[in-house]
Design brief:
The structure is a homodimer of 306-residue chains. The first copy, chain A, has 306 residues and is an alpha/beta fold. Chain A contains 10 helices and 12 strands. The radius of gyration of chain A is 20 Å and the shape is globular.
């Protein structure tokens, strides 16, 4: 009897790890969640979780969407490492190699947002729309751009959350919370920026607070830049801040105003509700995206073997 | 006797057309330049110029880098048209079809900046660096992003010159010159923006004028955004404004300051003189880029024919 082919996926967050064995959104066979402690303990638990599936031959590749900064330069001797990070114990951790040695299957590693973007493009809201952009607005701000079915990789992992946008100092004298750039997009609009400015978390700021128009303006400015530079066919907004659903309408309206008719495509101008949308996979974009990474590396390896 | 294979290239500008028959930078066989008048006359001259080379079988494909807005959606019924443009006579001009019917060879059409970026990546300053970004800062501001050897194409032609960047209203109260967005990047930093603000063309503003630090700040802000979003391995700055060579040092210094160590790649941090550079092909990026487009479509067609 043939057992169905399955894949392993790890959403490796700075707070918690989610490991799944699956072959798609409706086919999650097993899932485990645990806190991110030391690399030894955390990666050890992951190896332990996957080992039986690997031993039985059901899982032949594992994908990882990891917090960063990640070294994804294929020519680097520290490829697949988490580089220097303020998170205790995790600087210079060889995530790729540790899993590889522990399980002896191909590991595909990418950033958490690239994995989530890929998951959305394979099974979620951006399925059938290429290129697409997945943006998370939460503790940090990061984006995953999927083009020709793959996350964009250039000189370095794109860090599009840190772009410079106009800062409305008149209405919003807050200096920004980014330790590197002060009032970059993340420094103005992330969850910690909201909390530092207002003394309340984004979840607690009342819907009628005038601040939300400023927040929507910052997000819309950044989206305008991504649209003009990357020309995505779908934009997905996820993350903690975007749990406030009323933000979507404010952001769409402001993007429309800012573009001011410049972009002639009717998807942007007339159907903006279908253009800027929440994740189709809810909070599973990341873990299912890791499954999609595993499927891609498995297919590539099988192609090579003829 | 075999005649060497040649290609046709058209740099189709709003002011002038440059047509070349060539197979690379050292091998330009013939070149003609003429003013852009009506589509009939201008495209007619181009057809006339290329006809003998096509008839003799020496030229079997022609590339075009054109002013815009261009419709490059392959599913559109007006693919290869110049769409609605303020330039008299040129709105809704079927550039692709007119050349195709006049010469009966495959035509590859793209934006002027995408062609220039491609030319630079094949023979110029970004050769061997993929992805790369070519930015022109002149009458307008536009960018061509080359990834995997091809210009990026998404929902629409990217219009990265119109991104939103911080506007230093204190030192620079000018409202911006963009009819769509006021103080977007192009509205603040293009040639016309300089002239409207100072009453002098960029060529005439003295090098010691404090304005150049503001200009460099705007350009550096935009470059920072492109770096964080697109992660190019080389950035080329061309166009009229960049003829003021001293701007390069100011821009590089300011990009370095703005990134503030965030990007850990040593190419950016330590060798920024080799990262942000002038075009390697001088003023031939566009026409040679059109030749590169022709070579690409020719190779694709030959592949298809087996």
């Amino acid at each position: 009897m043939n057992m169905p082919q399955l894949y392993g996926g790890i959403e490796a967050g700075g707070t918690k790890f989610i490991c799944v064995v699956a072959r798609g959104p409706g086919h999650i066979v097993e899932e485990i969640r645990f806190s991110t402690t030391t690399p030894e303990e955390t990666l050890g638990k992951a190896v332990q979780f996957f080992r039986p599936f690997v031993s039985s031959g059901q899982v032949s590749a594992i994908g990882v969407g990891a917090f960063g900064p990640l070294d994804l330069n294929p020519e680097s001797s520290t490829y697949g490492f988490i580089a220097s990070t303020p998170k205790p114990h995790w600087s210079n951790t060889d995530v790729d190699g540790t899993l590889q040695r522990g399980l002896n299957v191909p590991i595909a590693i990418d950033t958490d947002v690239n994995a989530a973007g890929l998951g959305e493009s394979v099974w979620g809201a951006s399925n059938g729309f290429d290129p697409s952009l997945y943006l998370t607005i939460g503790t940090g701000i990061g984006g995953g751009y999927i083009k020709d079915g793959k996350p964009l990789l250039g000189l370095l992992t794109p860090e599009m959350g840190h772009i410079r946008i106009p800062h409305n100092r008149e209405l919003d004298p807050f200096n920004g919370s980014c330790p590197f750039h002060g009032d970059c997009f993340e420094g103005l609009a992330s969850g910690p920026a909201i909390e530092k400015r207002l003394g309340l978390t984004g979840a607690d700021v009342p819907e009628k607070d005038a601040f939300w128009d400023i927040e929507a303006d910052y997000i819309a400015s950044a989206l305008m830049n991504y649209i003009l530079v990357l020309s995505p066919k779908k934009i997905i907004l996820g993350g903690g801040v975007m749990q406030r659903q009323f933000l979507f309408a404010k952001i769409r309206r402001r993007v429309h105003e800012l573009l001011n008719g410049y972009v002639s495509d009717k998807n942007v101008l007339e159907n903006i509700e279908d253009y800027i949308v929440p994740p189709g996979l809810g909070n599973q974009s990341g873990s299912l995206g890791a499954i999609a990474l595993a499927m891609q590396i498995d297919a590539t390896n099988k192609d090579r073997q003829g």
